[in-house]
Write a structure and sequence with these properties.
alpha/beta; Rossmann fold; 8-stranded mixed β-sheet; 8 strands; about 20% strand; binds S-adenosylmethionine
Length: about 220
């Protein structure tokens, strides 16, 4: 039976309800709207240089740092492995790539990393400079980079409103490819532009799949 999910918040809620992660890390918490889906029993670490979370859920540590600074000394993790992570910080693809690589390094091998904004709407909302309310930036290139340079990972993008949610599984915390080949990856992927994604079959290019819980549930279970 089909179980369509329309928004990324709807998908995030389902994933929290299913997995009930012990440790959830969110990069980019802003006002804490996406933290509302975290279930009792989950410890939260939120990282954001300008957090505006008025009432954090119980068991939450908000670290007011950039993600790069946080991962230089991720004390708030307390040495625990991440079960579920959501990368929703600075919407520049190479920053998101670093965020995903750093999250993976501190994740459990059966953990899940989610990446917001991977199915862009148009050239303006996918530009690196923000000029619109809905802004995905060029985060879609992170998915292309992972699929090209980390074929051992399973990376799909759920087609949920407004701009998709990538699901990364098959994590290997010992893998150093992104760190070791970072300059090469940036040089190659930076050459991609809007024309490439506009012309692409997104199911092949991004691993775009329907936002349907019947299909997505097994990926994150
Ligand atoms: C789109 S908002 C996050 C929204 C939130 N996840 C939600 O769904 O309710 C992006 C956030 O990323 C934060 N941010 C910007 N640069 C960052 C960085 N280098 N590291 C971590 N967070 C960053 C911004 O301050 C902003 O609050």
């Amino acid at each position: 039976m089909r179980e369509p999910i329309s928004t990324y918040y709807g998908l995030l809620r389902r994933i929290h309800e299913l997995r009930r992660p012990s440790l959830y890390v969110e990069i980019g918490v802003h006002e804490g709207h996406s933290l509302a889906f975290v279930q009792p029993g989950t410890r939260i670490v939120g990282v954001d240089p300008e957090p505006k979370v008025a009432e954090p859920p119980p068991n939450t540590t908000i670290v007011a740092q950039t993600s790069d600074d946080f991962f230089a000394d991720p004390e708030a993790l307390g040495g625990a492995a991440i079960d579920l992570a959501f990368a929703d910080g600075l919407h520049w693809w190479e920053q998101t790539l670093r965020d995903v690589a750093n999250l993976e390094r501190h994740s459990s091998p059966d953990g899940v990393i989610l990446i917001h904004d991977c199915n862009p709407i148009d050239e303006v909302t996918a530009a690196r400079e923000r000029t619109t309310a809905v802004w995905s930036g060029d985060v879609w290139k992170t998915v292309v980079a992972l699929r090209r340079f980390r074929p051992d990972l399973q990376v799909v993008v759920a087609d949920v409103e407004p701009t998709g949610l990538a699901i990364v599984t098959g994590l290997d915390p010992t893998n150093t490819v992104v760190f070791d080949r970072y300059d090469e990856i940036v040089a190659e992927i930076d050459r991609l532009g809007w024309a490439d994604i506009a012309a692409a079959d997104r199911s092949e290019f991004l691993g775009l799949v329907a936002g349907d819980w019947a299909d997505l549930r097994p990926l994150v279970a």
